[in-house]
Amino acid sequence: MIRFAKYESLTAFKKEVSSFLEQDEAANNLLLGVLQSLSEQDATPLLMAALWKNDDLGLVLFQTHPKQIILSKPTALSSQDIHELGQKLVQTVQPIPGFIGEKKITTELALYVSQALGTHAKIHMEQTIYKLEKVKNTLQTNGKLRRVIASDHAVIKEWIYQFCQETNQPLSLDEASIKATFLINKGNLVAWEVNEELVSMASATRPTQHNITISYVYTPSNQRKKGYASDCVSDFTQRLLDRGYQTTSLYADQSNPTSNYVYRQIGYEPIMDSIVIQFQ
Question: How would residue 140 be classed by pLDDT, with cut points 50, 70 and 90?
């Protein structure tokens, strides 16, 4: 028997679900990282909810972004459980823009919701979540990792714009400029530099107790297939481990075999398939 619970208090929600999410920080890096970054002084999340099965937590649902509800890594849920959850969502949550979560459960839930609402469910992106505990490879290129600074803004703005275009998350140049400023000021954006030229970048985000996530991995087209992204991510990952994180994680687009190969060579292991589904 399942029970669907919605929460109004961020503090109460954190207390209820954090230990469940922390059982797999890497797989839950998106939901857990966003949740832990918020306080009661921030805007109230659009949705805080949990699915209970036989008095045990089975799934956490969290929404701060208008286009998607984040689903945690689930426990063993039957099709009947998913259908009952879909029914509860349709009855109590409006609007339901889409989901991001473990592929099988998310796909089944989206299919039920789309049929109940009479909408079309569209796959926006299919990704693999990777986790690393130890860097395997050694650096291959004659370069160095350095922190990105304000004077790099023009380059980084263009790279963020291109990165978002390639990952089907388009934004304007003005929005890319704002994002570049934010990431630079936050201090966790790095670049691989060869002969005083930036050739690849990566960022760290969503730190949790033992894990931190790498994102915004990008190399401009004229610098690809030279090993720069591999060295950038590898060196950056090692530095994050040296800071005290036990693991690092990242999302990789399944349609890009090159990046998936590179991450595996560094030491990243696939732990969960993730899918983004939006309703139209």
Answer: confident
